[in-house]
Automatic annotation (TrEMBL):
Keywords, ordered alphabetically: ATP-binding, Cell membrane, Hydrolase, Membrane, Metal-binding, Nucleotide-binding, Translocase, Transmembrane, Transmembrane helix
Annotated gene: cadA
EC number: 7.2.2.12
Gene3D superfamilies: Calcium-transporting ATPase, cytoplasmic domain N, Calcium-transporting ATPase, cytoplasmic transduction domain A, HAD superfamily/HAD-like
Cellular-component GO terms for this entry: plasma membrane
Gene Ontology MF terms: ATP binding; ATP hydrolysis activity; metal ion binding; P-type zinc transporter activity
Reactions mediated catalytically: Zn(2+)(in) + ATP + H2O = Zn(2+)(out) + ADP + phosphate + H(+)
Domain P-type ATPase A: from-to ranges: 122-222
Protein location: Cell membrane; Membrane
Domain of life: Bacteria
Bilayer-spanning residue ranges: 12-31, 38-57, 77-101, 238-258, 264-288, 561-582
Protein name in the entry: P-type Zn(2+) transporter
InterPro entries the UniProt entry points to: ATPase_P-typ_cyto_dom_N, ATPase_P-typ_P_site, ATPase_P-typ_TM_dom_sf, ATPase_P-typ_transduc_dom_A_sf, ATPase_P-type_domA, Cation_Transport_ATPase_IB, HAD-like_sf, HAD_sf
PANTHER family: CADMIUM/ZINC-TRANSPORTING ATPASE HMA2-RELATED, CADMIUM_ZINC-TRANSPORTING ATPASE HMA4-RELATED
Length: 615
């Protein structure tokens, strides 16, 4: 049972091969009774067992000292027992089996590790940095934020940053999971770890190394490898119990039948590496595969939770929509100019980070309206802005904000469904600005995918019921709750969790951060706030909701594979021990069943490893 973290990196050692060869040759020599001066004690057998069995016995001794019940322990006992009744052939062949199995396990585990190694290796170590008119090649560590990095066609992009020159298409599938090449022109954002295809581009460095999106993927996978998921601890415990059980069964067999060979078979047949090594391999493989799709799962525990979720709560703005509303129309009250409505709104919104605020300011700029700085302003959660402009109080926000101040507002324009931003000055209604956000094109299919998995979906939003209903209809979410303040979203999620649902909340961190952290699983959009991405359990780097659905499927499959291995191991071991106790299994057959079944379960886990990890 090799330890994934430490042993797997070790290549196939020549001495290990020598041990296997020596044990195999000695087994043949014993079989043909080549040189047996001291029969029934086989000198060749003893010498070969000491040489070949040494690592197994050493591992067994250290496990014994650490009070860990492992296969090495039971196998050592079985080998010694076989030798002590002069069954040297059996002892040697079992030794070969154990050594070969360990080597195979190590190779499988190494594949898991290599998937991570490839990940780390993929980002170039050097970058071409512009220095005045010259271009110098620097180690990526020496590149500073604000430097201009040049990337020629065919090269991998070494840093995260905005393109300031050139035009190209890049393959950024490793970061966002999108299979189509993405076009990069001046102003687009380029990710470290993507491959520049046909044009030279120049990038202003914004993030380097572990701070890049790709660096975060690596970090997530590495930490997933270090942290043990609860199911992994369960696997270790179960493996230990199996060894105890095998000892008890062997003792019983010996007491009842008095047959040493059958007793040895009972010990040998019970294997648990399929779960002890297969469980971490499955988790690592799944996390690596999710990372390939642009879904960073920050640990095996979250993967496990994801496999159990039955409810997904989604935020609207920034999650189901792009979170980039655009002004559709400005409706001014009689006698008021549209530009005046926009001017006051933009002034009030000037310092607000809210997506609606930014859209209003942008629209004002686009129309050439002069922007004035507000003398004072306050932001009321879920309502809007109260500002002081040119000595008058200006309200910019939703119906709730104006109604609470006693300002009458005409009914919404039936022509458009959009978020409305109402504007009032000194207690008088001036007009409204209608904004619309684009629904993410994959949102509809993503919801359908979740529904097909039997998952309940809810849309929670601070926006008006009219907008929320329109979005919900468009993407096929049945349950909608609108007009919610952040604390309402939190309470709603808390109620679902208290009701026994396993809840994932998908959001962008703008006014849904408390709910994100309250859910069993917080899923942050890559376009969301940094805080949300940092505190979330899963980050969707590419903002692709379909990849979230794929990740849910993957998590369920991982759970299924782990449980298949659990059940399979228990079944094989119990049936094997019963057959061995009844005298149906020779130690050799018992050893092949042990090793054979373990390899099947290990390969079952290895199915989850990302494919083509070199590409
Ligand atoms: N700066 C602002 N300017 C104008 N209106 C605002 C502002 N901040 C909040 N509002 C109003 O309050 C409502 C709720 O805002 P909140 O930020 O909680 O949710 P949201 O962004 O509309 O949607 P979601 O909850 O889906 O993210 C908005 O729809 C808007 O009507
Ligand atoms: Zn084993």
């Amino acid at each position: 049972m090799p330890d994934l973290a430490s042993d797997a990196a070790r290549p196939f050692a020549p001495v290990q091969a020598a041990r296997i060869a020596v044990a195999a040759l000695a087994a043949a020599a014993v079989w043909f009774e080549v040189w047996e001066p001291l029969a029934p004690l086989s000198l060749i057998g003893v010498a070969a067992l000491i040489f070949a069995g040494w690592p197994i016995a050493r591992e067994a001794a250290s496990n014994l000292l650490a009070r860990r019940m492992t296969m090495e322990l039971s196998m050592t006992i079985a080998i010694v027992a076989a030798a002590s009744i002069s069954e040297f052939f059996t002892a040697l062949v079992v030794t070969v089996f154990v050594l070969v199995a360990e080597e195979l396990e190590r190779l499988t585990a190494a594949r898991g590790r290599r998937a991570i190694g490839d990940l780390v290796e993929f980002v170039p170590r050097e970058a071409r940095v512009r220095r005045g008119s010259a271009v110098v090649t620097l180690a990526v560590d020496a590149v500073a934020i604000g430097d201009r990095v040049l990337v020629i066609p065919g090269e991998r992009i070494p840093v995260d940053g905005a393109v300031v020159e050139g035009h190209s298409t890049v393959d950024q599938s490793r970061i966002t999971g999108e299979s189509m090449p993405a076009e990069k022109t001046v102003g687009s954002f380029a990710y470290a770890g993507s491959i520049n295809q046909d044009g030279a581009i120049e990038i202003v460095v914004e993030r380097v190394g572990r701070d890049t999106s790709y660096g975060r993927i690596i970090e997530a996978v590495e930490s997933a490898e270090r942290s043990r998921a609860p199911v992994q601890r369960l696997a270790d415990r179960l493996a230990g119990y199996l060894v105890y059980f095998a000892f008890a069964a062997a003792a019983t067999t010996f007491l009842v039948t008095g047959d040493v060979r059958d007793t040895i078979s009972v010990i040998i047949v019970a294997g648990a590496c399929g779960i002890a090594a297969g469980t971490p391999l499955a988790i690592l493989g799944a996390i690596g595969r999710a990372a390939r799709m642009g879904a960073i799962v920050k640990g095996g525990m979250h993967l496990e939770t994801l496999g159990r979720i039955d409810t997904v709560v989604l935020d609207k703005t920034g999650t189901l929509t792009f979170g980039e509303p655009r002004v559709q129309a400005v409706h001014a009250a009689p006698g008021i100019a549209e530009d005046e409505v926009l001017r006051l709104a933009a002034a009030a919104e000037l310092r607000s980070e809210h997506p609606l605020a930014r859209a209003v300011v942008q629209a004002a700029e686009a129309r050439g309206v002069a922007l004035v700085e507000p003398a004072a302003f306050t932001n009321t959660l879920g309502r809007g802005i109260t500002a002081e402009i040119a000595g008058a109080q200006v309200l910019v926000g939703n119906r709730r904000l104006l109604a609470e101040t006693g300002i009458a507002v005409p009914a919404p324009h039936a022509a458009e469904i959009g978020s409305e931003v109402l504007v009032a000055q000194a207690g008088r209604y001036l007009g409204q600005i209608v904004l619309a956000d684009r629904v993410r094109p994959e949102a509809h299919d993503a919801i359908a995918g979740l529904t097909a998995l039997g998952i309940r979906t809810l849309l929670l939003t601070g926006d008006s019921a009219a907008v929320a209903d329109a979005v919900a209809r468009q993407i096929g979410i049945a349950e909608v709750e609108a007009g919610l303040l952040p604390e309402h979203k939190l309470a709603r999620v808390a109620a679902l969790v208290a009701g026994g649902r396993v809840v994932a909340m998908v959001g962008d961190g703008i006014n849904d951060a408390p709910a994100l952290s309250r859910a069993d699983l917080g899923v942050a959009m890559g376009s969301g706030t940094d805080v949300a991405q940092e505190s979330a359990d899963i980050v969707l780097l590419g903002n692709d909701l379909l990849k979230f659905v794929d990740t849910v499927r993957l998590a369920r499959r991982t759970r299924a594979i782990i449980w298949q291995n659990f059940a399979g191991t228990l079944g094989v071991d119990l049936i094997g021990m019963a057959l061995a106790a009844a005298g149906f299994l020779s130690p050799l057959v018992a050893a092949s069943i042990h090793v054979g079944s373990e390899m099947v379960f290990l390969l079952n886990s290895a199915r989850l490893l990302p494919r083509g990890s070199n590409g």
